[in-house]
Design goal:
single chain; 12 helices; globular
Length: 274
């Protein structure tokens, strides 16, 4: 059991779980747009997520962004270096039409952690921008890259889907911000810091209503989309409802983070039905 717990903790701490969540959202995009899977893009998203999240979690606090002390963090660092080289491998296998967008999202991710303004430690430390920046990058990586890759064009339906994805990611982040309410720096001014827990949950419910309602603003919508978004809204709403400041150890880091994977499973299950 001790060995299994060690591997499970490494799975979470090394950002493998969040990488699967990002890939799951990409597969959801492919399913909703009736596209085809680009496995090089899947590999890129998976490996780059590991690199990005581990750098934010460990590199920022490390000496010169690279020197860590504990052997456990060194193991994660070594794993991250392997993921970095894999990221480069998959990046150069992608069509060059995706490169510019990837550079933009990578730049935003870097600004999230690396200081660039005289009066701000990094972009994350600017008042209340953290959650929206993360949602923007996740939306870009899991949806916009697929739109560019498939050359679908930015139609009304794509714009609606993009906004829905943006809202979905914000709702996913809220349980983490509630969990970290007593630990986050006051300068971050997260939504729970501004509104409190009860109003933050209400804010999440409002976003879910908007998320679901936007389905009917598309230029035509299917039973699949309505069914999927109804189930997705219910699942996300349940996650917010069960969120507390004092959470079980793995509530947010595993169960909330797993919601995109559950949504992908739901989508795969209802496709043959509708």
């Amino acid at each position: 059991m001790r060995v299994l717990r060690l591997f499970f903790n490494f799975y979470l701490d090394a950002s493998i779980h969040v990488a699967f969540s990002v890939v799951a959202l990409y597969f959801i995009t492919v399913g909703l747009l009736d596209g085809s899977t680009n496995w090089s893009l899947v590999g890129f998203l998976f490996c780059s997520t590991i690199v990005c999240y581990n750098f934010i979690k460990y590199g920022v606090e490390a000496k010169k962004y690279i020197i860590v002390r504990s052997s456990y963090q060194k193991a994660i660092q070594f794993f991250s270096f392997l993921a970095f080289f894999a990221t480069l491998f998959f990046f150069f296998k992608l069509d060059t039409k995706l490169w510019s967008a990837i550079v933009v999202f990578a730049f935003l991710s870097a600004l999230y952690a690396v200081p660039f303004l005289p009066k701000a430690k990094n972009l994350r430390s600017l008042d209340g921008t953290k959650i929206y920046l993360v949602a923007l990058v996740w939306t870009g990586c899991t949806l916009i890259l697929e739109v560019l890759d498939s050359e679908l064009g930015f139609t009304l339906n794509i714009l609606v889907l993009s906004f829905q994805r943006f809202l979905l990611v914000i709702v996913l982040i809220l349980p983490f911000d509630i969990r970290d309410l007593d630990h986050d720096s006051k300068e971050l001014k997260t939504i729970p810091q501004r509104l409190g827990i009860v109003k933050t949950k209400m804010f999440g419910y409002i976003l879910l209503i908007l998320f679901f309602s936007l389905t009917f603003f598309k230029d035509g919508f299917t039973t699949l989309e309505v069914t999927y978004r109804c189930l997705a809204s219910f699942l996300l709403g349940a996650g917010i409802f069960m969120t507390k400041k004092e959470q079980p150890k793995y509530f947010a880091s595993f169960w909330i983070e797993a919601i995109p994977m559950v949504l992908l499973l739901i989508l795969k299950l209802i496709i043959p039905v509708v």
